[in-house]
Amino acid sequence: MHIAAIDYMANNGDSFLHQARPVTKVFISFLFLVCLIISSQIGKALVLLVIPIILILLSGVNLREVLHLAAYPLVFSLIFALIRMQQSWILGMLVLIKALGAALNMLLLLATTPYTDLFGVFSYVLPGVIVDVFLFTYRSLFILLDKLENMVKSIRLRGGFHPMKLLFNLKNAAGALGVMTIHAFDMSERMYRIYSLRGYKGKIPVTRDWWPLRLVDGLLLLFSLIVLTGVLIPWNI
Questions:
Q1: Which among 203, 156, 200, 205 has a CA at the least distance from the CA of 176?
Q2: Which of 149, 210, 220, 228 could form a disulfide with 23 if both were Cys (CB 3.0 to 4.6 A apart)?
Q3: Is 40 left (phi over 0), alpha (psi -120 to 50) or beta?
Q4: What is residue 73's predicted lDDT score, i.e. its pLDDT?
Q5: Taking Cα atoms as reference points, which of 11, 51, 76, 106 lies closest to residue 226?
Q6: Residue 35: how many CB atoms within 10 A of its CB?
């Protein structure tokens, strides 16, 4: 339940990053991603990798959980890194560093910003229907994951999985997937009725708390601009 762990860290943290405005953190994350994309020197990429690690340590979130999630994009980027290493080992290392840096950057944003605040920022550029879909999907995801976990435990206790019977396992997994699909449709219908009874008319009011900016927001914005300037200036190494 890594998603639940990230959600818990975002809602229960009290670091300076948790106290910063959501719009500031989204802007800084976007700026760091741009810096990673345009950086062509391995030294700059390493600096952009170290910065989110330091911020993660300062924010007090679970570093082990974050690194575990960041390992997934790192593994998938190995294929592209091996292809680039045929030209130069530096190019291959750049692919790995950029993949890990981008993953840590986004995980830092998710682990320090509640999802409702993130969707509030996205509502400036996305239609209200899309924001509502994200809100409903995110809420339903935890319910479905909990049901899936209980279902898998029930199947295991009843001998539904056997290490030497592949077809038998696939049959039971397909049955579990079918039951989860029915649960998902049933839950979506019940959720729509509940929200309709509570006055839902196609748009959920989203709180946009981004002004006035605080001191921590100004310091973070200044720091991000310094980093961007350092990336744009060529290093003679």
A1: 156
A2: 210
A3: alpha
A4: 82
A5: 51
A6: 23
Q: Which one, of 205, 17, 6, lies nearest residue 120 by Cα?
A: 205
- Location of structure tokens 């989203």: 206
Distance of CA 164 to the CA centre of its chain: 36
- The 10s digit of each residue's pLDDT in 2-38 is 677 777 888 887 888 888 888 888 888 888 888 888 8
The encoded tokens of residue 202 equal: 């196609």
- Name the nearest CA neighbour of 6 among 100, 108, 101, 99: 108
Nearest to residue 59, comparing CAs of 1, 104, 124, 122? 104
28, burial (CB in 10 Å: exposed 0-12, middle 13-18, buried 19+):
buried
Q: Token digits for 33?
A: 């991603």
Q: Are 25 and 113 in contact (CB under 8 A)?
A: yes
Instruction: Tell me the two tokens of residue 103.
Output: 């993953």
Q: Tokens standing for 140?
A: 């339903």
